[in-house]
Amino acid sequence: MAEPDQIVILTGAGISAESGIDTFRDTGGLWENHPIEQVATPEGFAKDPELVHRFYNLRRAALSKVKPNAAHLALGRLQHEFAGKLTLVTQNVDDLHERGGSSDVIHMHGELLSAFCSACDHHWQQLSDLSPSTPCPACQTRGGPRPDIVWFGEMPYQMRRLEAAVQACDLFVSIGTSGAVYPAAGFVHLAKTYGARTLELNLDPSQGSAVFDEARHGPATKLVPEWVASVLA
Ligand code: OAD
C-alpha cells in the first residue's frame, strides 16, 4: 500500500479517557452528572448562566489534574516526524493534544481554556473562573462572556478548512470517537467519496465502524503508538 502524503486525524473523548476524563456516551448521556441540554445548549445557558459557568469552571480547573497519555504523545511525535501534511482535528475541549506536543490543533467543538463575548464576539484565552458578572475584556459587557464551547445547535468551528482537508487527504484516521455526532461523524463518508483510505482506532466498534476500510479495536494508549510507529517506520 502506498505511503500517505496527507493524513487527517479526527479524535474524540476516547483518546482522553485513559488520562482520566470521562467520555460522553459511556456515562449514560450525562456529562459529569448533568443532562447535556442543561450544560451544553444555548437554551441551558440562557436559563441558568450561573450553573453553566460553574460547570465549565470545574471542567477547566480539572484540566490541571490530568496529563496527556501515550496516545496524545504519539500524535505529537507524528506531527513532528511525518514528512507529509498532517491535520489534527479534535472534538475534545481539553488541551491534552497541545500538552502532548501537537500544534495547530483544530478544536471543532471549542476549548475549555478559551472564552468569547456573545455581545461583541471577542475571543480570548480563559484560565480562571467565569461568572455572569465577569465583564468582557474588550467591550466590558457583563453577562457577555461565555465558555468557548460549541453547544448543541451551534456550528462547529473551521468547517470549510476541515472539509477541504478531508477531501484532499489520502488517509483519514478516526480515534476514540463514537461517530454519533455530526458533522464530525460524516467525515469518514466524505473522505471515502474523495478516495482516501479510512482507519478507525477505537475501544470497540463505533456506530460507523463498518464504513471504515479498516478498524482496530483496543485502548488508544496501545493502538495509537503502534499505528504511529508503523507510519514512521
Ligand atoms: P463519545 O463518548 O460519544 O465516544 C467515545 C468513544 O471512545 C466511544 O466509542 C468509546 O468506545 C471510545 N473509547 C472509550 N475509551 C477508550 C479508550 N481508552 N481508547 C479508545 N477508545 C475509547 O465521545 P465523542 O465521540 O468524542 O460534543 O463525542 C462526540 C461529541 O459528543 C463530543 O465532542 C461532545 C458530545 O456531545 C459537544 O460537546 C458539542
From TrEMBL:
The keyword Zinc applies. One of its GO terms (cellular component) is cytoplasm. It is an enzyme of class 2 (transferase). Its EC number is 2.3.1.286. The keyword 4Fe-4S does not apply. Residues 1-233 form the Deacetylase sirtuin-type domain. It catalyses: N(6)-acetyl-L-lysyl-[protein] + NAD(+) + H2O = 2''-O-acetyl-ADP-D-ribose + nicotinamide + L-lysyl-[protein]; N(6)-succinyl-L-lysyl-[protein] + NAD(+) + H2O = 2''-O-succinyl-ADP-D-ribose + nicotinamide + L-lysyl-[protein]. CDD domains: SIRT5_Af1_CobB. Substrate binds at Y56, R59. The active site is at H109. Coiled coil: none annotated. PROSITE patterns: SIRTUIN. NAD-dependent lysine deacetylase and desuccinylase that specifically removes acetyl and succinyl groups on target proteins. Modulates the activities of several proteins which are inactive in their acylated form. Belongs to the sirtuin family. Class III subfamily. This is NAD-dependent protein deacylase. It comes from Litorimonas cladophorae.
